[in-house]
Amino acid sequence: MSKPAAREPQRRNSRSNRARILATARQELGRNPDITLEELARASGVVRRTLFGHFPGRAVLLEALAEEGSEVLREALERGARPGEPAERAFAYFMFSLWPVGDRYRMLLGLTRRDLGPERVTEILAPARAAATAILERGQREGVFHTRLPAAALSAGLEALTVALLESVNSGTLEDDGSRTAIAALIAAGVPEERAAVVVGEVAASLPPVAD
């Protein structure tokens, strides 16, 4: 009769191990895409058998990370959507919504070639790319953003800029809560520097405090 009660701590422990493995994999793969599953097990503080019990191979682990990243990105985009705001403010909200999940974004891009494949990564990142392009197109129509590049090409350039700045934060060459990157992106889109700083400051002040 005591077995059902005993199973729940085991399930909780299993869920905890799985979550820890995924969190460690996000971090370590961002640093070294070639890390082995054995190395990930050690970094996660679990034995090899435990890791392979949850993820029997690298492809299974990476697909779990892809699914997790896809869901987190969707949630972030929903939180950051401001269709009623002027385009420059809407884009600042978009940048702030992605910043907390930027490491996932960066990691997925880093795994494109050899693991997930470009088609799978494109599928995962498509909603974020479409949202950015839509805001930029609107801003170009409103005369807020420059039209020297098509919106899709401008979006791709700003994505590369954001990823590069995320890597600078991780390497310790840049300190940023997302504000500096949002300002840089608006400037690159054609917003004057002083105006970009004002817009980002106003948007940052309107956001709820980040939980510790």
Short account of what is shown:
This protein is mostly helical.
Q: Work out the helix count.
A: 11
Strand content: under 5%
Categorize the overall geometry: elongated
Radius of gyration: 20 Å
Summing up helix and strand content along with how strands pair, one would put the structural category as: mainly alpha
Instruction: Name the average pLDDT.
Output: 85
- The portion of residues assigned to helices is over 70%
Major sheet summary line: none
Low-pLDDT segments: none
Write down the oligomeric state: single chain
Please tally the β strands and state the result: 0
Order of helices and strands: HHHHHHHHHHH
Question: Would you write up a description of this structure?
Answer:
- By secondary structure, the chain is mainly alpha-helical.
- Helices cover 77% and strands 0% of the residues.
- The protein has 11 helices and no strands.
- It has helices spanning 3-31, 37-44, 48-54, 58-80, 87-98, 102-110, 112-116, 118-142, 151-171, 179-189, 193-206.
- Helix 1 crosses helix 6, helix 4 packs parallel to helix 8 (118-142) and helix 5 packs across helix 10 (179-189).
- The chain is elongated, with a radius of gyration of 20 Å.
- The chain starts with a helix and ends in a 6-residue tail after the last helix.
- The mean pLDDT is 85.
